[in-house]
Amino acid sequence: MGCRDVHAATVLAFLSGTASVAGLLAAVLLPNWRQMRLYTFNKNERNVTVYTGLWIKCARFDGSRDCVIYDPQWYTAVDQLDLRVLQFALPLSMFTAVSALFLCLIGMCNTAFVSSVPNVKLAKCLVNSAGCHLVAGLLFLLACAICLTPSVWVIFYNNYLNRKYEPVFSFDISVFIAIASAGGLFFTSVLLFLWYCACKSLPSPFWQPLYSHAPSMHSYASQPYSARSRLSALEIDIPVVTHAS
Length: 245
Known about the structure:
Layout: H1 8-29, E1 34-38, E2 48-52, E3 57-61, E4 69-71, H2 81-113, H3 129-164, E5 169-171, H4 173-198
Antiparallel strand pairs: 1-2, 1-5, 2-3, 3-4
Helix pairs in contact: 1-2, 1-4, 2-3, 3-4
Transmembrane segments: 6-30, 88-114, 134-156, 168-196
Membrane topology: Multi-pass membrane protein
Protein name: CLD12 protein
């Protein structure tokens, strides 16, 4: 697997990261983090389900898609600790993942469009594509941890609410979307780490270009020579035979 070529692993990682960020965006916007079922024993009335999201709250009658009560200011009055944590954790996870995507894109563009032998004067200032992908993998892993931890906590906090009040609470589809997106971020980071480990044998530093200087300028250590080998042919004493008169 050559670091100087755009490999299928890096392209697949970029697509997987993009899909994961899209899943996180959907989980953030959907009002389906928690359901609260309110039952009635009056046959002339219908049961009500309250859908709680990170930013809005919607109450619907069973069999209806219209919100009877719609609260767009719910994000300012969230009284559930797990949802309050998610309001900060998921946007932070998205920002981290988008930064990783940007680095991954820089690495691929640097691999595809930059000459394999850069200018010697600018070599130390250039960015290594392998270094970009490695840091992007670390950022994807960090985004996964930021997203996964509070998303799983929702499940345990939901059980806590059922024990404290009544068993009317249940987690909704946004929890599964967020956990699946975190899994996609982890898969993306693993792909980038595998790609980097395959390129690890190249004689290149961590963050510098693959060629720190032009191949023709590689310096080799000079071997010691004997004192006589330094003499040129003209400096070697050659005996001269003279004839006596």
